[in-house]
Amino acid sequence: MKHKKYIEKIHFAIFALLVTLANAQISSGVYLSNEENIRHELKIDKGYLTHTIYKTNPAEFVKTLGGFYTADGYNIKINLEFNSDFEKDSLKVMEIPYSFNANNITFQLEKAVTLEKKQPIEQDLDGQWLFATRGPDTGQERRGEENPRKTLKFLLDGRFQWIAYQTETMQFSGTGGGSFTSKDGVYTENIEFFSRDNNRVGASLEFNYELKGDDWHHTGQNSRGEPMYEIWSKRN
């Protein structure tokens, strides 16, 4: 009888551990809130996340943060690479209580915010990219992971975001994002938030792209109508 109870306790402990581990493994994807006029957007993949808040009508950027994270089923701990509110709060590490199931994640912020998982969409250019250099690629010096000055592009499930920042000083230079498509060499961004100028929201920008190994060659015209050639290197 004692042996049976011991086995039952072991089984229960294993079950509890498996539940905890399952809760800790947040599914890769994009999660969006449905609150009126204010949107929380979470991109999470391969141990990295970005969390951005912006208003939709009228368009207004609020804040963004991101970095490498760990989750234990109760809290997400983020070692921040960037934090647009750093001058206000001085945060380099953040812990957010959360709960998770297959379709949504709830953050316990000033109030509980639930974000629903967006339908997955696989496209060319999905992933995390760091700006490397201006093209064409003629052997010039490239920015890499070791450089504290970074510009990151995070593309996932039809949503994109770029962020310019400095990891040593936590200086935040800007961000923008929205929806994107990438197919047959044509990359299109539809801007839904832009920290430097809310009036840019609603613009649609079209570029050409070519993948060469772990590099994304990004060409076309910039917002001023000038020729542009950038090379981005795959991070994850």
From TrEMBL:
Highest taxon of the lineage: Bacteria
Protein name as catalogued: Uncharacterized protein
Lineage summary: Bacteria, Pseudomonadati, Bacteroidota, Flavobacteriia, Flavobacteriales
